[in-house]
User: Fold these one by one.
Assistant:
Number 1:
Amino acid sequence: MSTQQQGYTGLWCPACDRAGSPARLVRQMSGKREGMLLQCPNGHQTTYDAVMRLRPRMDKPDFTEKQPAGTIVLPLWIHPEVLEAFKRKFPANWQTTLCSAVTSLADPDSVLIEGEAARDMAAIGVKRGREVLGLAREVKELREKLAAEQAQMATLRAFFGGMGLAMPQSANAPAPVPVPSGPPTLVDGHRNPSLPPAARFQDLVDDGSGMLVPANGGPGPESPFTLDTGIDTGNPPAAPADGRPGFVTGNLR
């Protein structure tokens, strides 16, 4: 006989739990004023509303996922560590959640925020989708306010300029800070190390064979690319890159 037929509610009597003799509450009848009446085999009687205020111990529902109608079963490429993490995060409905996630990704209007960007956003207090939307709306409002103020300043500047007057400045306005056109050439009497390396030559000329060589005879610039000639240099081969995500390998930025 099922627990539903016996009248069991899945709730345990709080008084019996405190006494060390656990017993389930059984549904009795529904009163017009009291609501659903519950009673345990040890004689403790209460209402559903009253026992829920006590936060009673409850049975975990026996939930079995069912394949949504109209869906198909498809093999999936996934790292085993990712699958285990996914099951830990959604233990009761991981397959249904995965189906919903793939459906959302296929929606052309969906926005995906990956782990690295999500962690950067969490660092400034943005952790949920509604917070992202709120931040976007706030940025939009600030941009519109700034555009309106810039248009107002342009109108005032044209007004005073038409009268041959300079734009008045507020007494509390800070003095404009000069913006350097670029990094300084010298730092502490030496060449600034942040500047790009100086060119080794200025011009290239044809050496007669169709190849371009430095006009000053010096060596050419070092190429940022390397060519794989297939010749064994004696160095061990590089280890294959780990394609697993950062939250699995611990490589988080």
Number 2:
Amino acid sequence: MPNNTLPVEAEFPTSAAHPEVARPSRVRALTWGGVVIAVVVAAAILIPSLTIGAKRGELLESVENRLRILASGRAEVLSTWLEGMLRQTHRVSESELFRLFATEVDLAGGDLAATIPQSDDGDTFATLAGPLVEQLPL
């Protein structure tokens, strides 16, 4: 007669029947769970820090380029302004009338009153130099 019953000593990994057999799988699961949590935490810290560092580098490079462009633009504006001022001063300093006036003032010793001709009777307002005398204080 065939024996259709299972032997009582069959090995089924249950915690009630054999606590020693079930224990290593629980420890293994907790270990794997800890490893997974550690990897997730490391990724949650590492990925944003690398991304923030890359963005910071891009931002610094962008600001540096903008400041370089701004500085060169301002230097160009200043150079253009100085060239304009130089052209204006050359126009005045190379004018024949200005040179003549400067020479007359130099010959008079810096006294502008000596450059104004007076009439024979001593009346300076009677001559054409009258308007010049009125402007002398200016």
Number 3:
Amino acid sequence: MPVVLVIGGLRIKGSSISGLTYSEAAGARLARHNILRGPVKVEVTGAEEDTIMLDGMVAPYEAFSSLELATALKEMLGTKQLVMRGDMTVKGWYMVERMEAEHEYIGAAGVGRAVYVSAELVKTDKPPVSEANGSLMTNVRKWLGF
């Protein structure tokens, strides 16, 4: 199954997550000046944060389990990760700001048979070269299984 998204060393395949929703948000900060008897003057004062939101349901018995996904996203919280789409289009450097996992239909082992995972990533600046190279090499090792 093809990879649909890469976050750092985490490769998310199409068969892993049912109903994966990927959305991006960006905006501009505006200042509105009401001028007496005139049109409202609008001035751009900066940019809003670029964010990526992911939502989907992972079955814990699939090849890529929900527990692995939740653990990987927790480990990435607050660290800069390179994000790419499945076609290898680089989206840039992002930090996982928030991650939630909701288990439903809890089984005997305490793991839900349906686990809904959501994550919010916030665009960040590029890390220093030494940090970026270390991050990329760690991710390449994970992909190759070393």
Number 4:
Amino acid sequence: MLEYMTALELLRMLVEWLSRRTAKDPLLCLAEGHFKVEVANALLDLGCQLQEGTYRDLLRHGQKIKQADYVKIVDGQVIWQRADRRVVSAEGSTDITVVLPIELQLELKTRPDHGTKSQAMFNELIPDIERVSETPHVAFLFGFDQKIYRSFSGAKTHGRGGKSNHSEDLANFFPKSDGMSENILFEASRYWKGKALNLVCMKQVQQSGISRVFVSGIRVDTMSIQNPTEGLSYMAQKLIAVPSTRFEF
């Protein structure tokens, strides 16, 4: 049984399993709500327990104690429980909070090639990247359709879409998709405002010809908060190790 897992290891497993799980979903990046559900499902598949906020407080000894709903899959059944909130975001909210087997908060963003989200400013990604660079135990996970990823990662070859004021920063930060092998994890080290981050990426290519890029990132010096659980042994059996190409910054 695994006794210790790092946040980086969990991100590797998440990106790889999310890519497998959504291989036949052409609309994954169209709406961030849909993306969140699929990321949450992938984490539950891997044996994680998630925390969802609730507005209800519990009065205990004259004090209001914040509550949360916790969800996990046990023997194929979805189990919800309400208990004291274990993880409180300093920013007020986060997209997904993992509490088992480690504590990790995830910020999510998507950019599709089509629809209203395709017109969103790329600089909306900056606050999430900055939060991750400044805060341990927080990671980002972005999903991009291939054409729009190329448009701001410095590999733009078509006329669709404009570049934001931060395009140079983003182009230097995000790895070029041309350097990624299809459906194989790609890892890189980057700096954002002097803070070192580990990036875990994958270029997902479907049989239909649709391709997208997943990019996740976390601070290099993040020390994982461990919450021992049998879920670690389950996760170890869930995925076969996948070859990883590392690009050293």
